[in-house]
Amino acid sequence: MGGHWDSWDVGSQTGANDDGGGVIVCLEALRILKQLGIKPKRTIRFIAWSGEEMGQNNNGASHYAKHHGTENHIIAFESDIGSTKPYGFGITAGQQFTQLVTYLAQQYLTGIGAERVYPNDGESVDSGILAEQTGTPMLNVRIADNQNHDFYFTYHHTAGDSMWMMNPQDMDDNVVAIASIMYLIADIDGPIPKD
Q1: How confident is the model over 45-91, as pLDDT tens digits?
Q2: What quaternary arrangement does the UniProt entry report (predicted)?
């Protein structure tokens, strides 16, 4: 799980929402699991991809897929559409895996308001490279914005995409939602269906 750690077009102080926030909430989700001593049955790996904004073939996601694609990945999670209030997850996977994630979200994440699951809507740029090469299911966080992502695109690739526009409570809510769903998936008993 992770996000991309690059922003290049309007200066070194930008890239908070696209996608520094996504990187930080994923890293913090893992830190919290570790701090609480929570150890799922499967490894949760953090990745901060690079080069996503440049769109080159040798970017971090392509490099990762090339060198780690043969490893047993259960899910590829990416946070890359901002870090406003989370309300659920998009998933691109087979029917059984989608049903499993839907059950977990509705059973355990209703109390934090992150229980909605959107089938066939989990792809992101970086996780998509691994999925394309390996068939690994994809998951992303769904956040408060309108259908056109007007809030996100107001700041996207502008000098305004700095930490001042990030909401700390929304970022904390992302951390909790992401840590929760990733732990729940990683701690499932028995084999996890890929179809």
Answers
A1: 999 988 777 777 778 898 899 999 999 999 999 999 888 999 999 99
A2: Homodimer. The monomeric form is inactive while the homodimer is active.
Give residue-wise pLDDT tens across range 13-44: 788 888 889 999 999 999 999 999 999 999 99
Q: What residues form DSSP beta bridges with 117? A: 89
For residues 104 and 181, the answer to whether their CB atoms sit within 8 Å is: yes
Residue 37 tokens read as 């001593």
Instruction: Tell me if 139 sits within 8 A of 89, measured CB to CB.
Output: yes
Residues 70-100 as b or e (16 or more Cβ within 10 Å = b) = eeebbbbbbbbbbbbbbbbbbbbbeeebbeb
pTM above 0.90, yes or no: yes
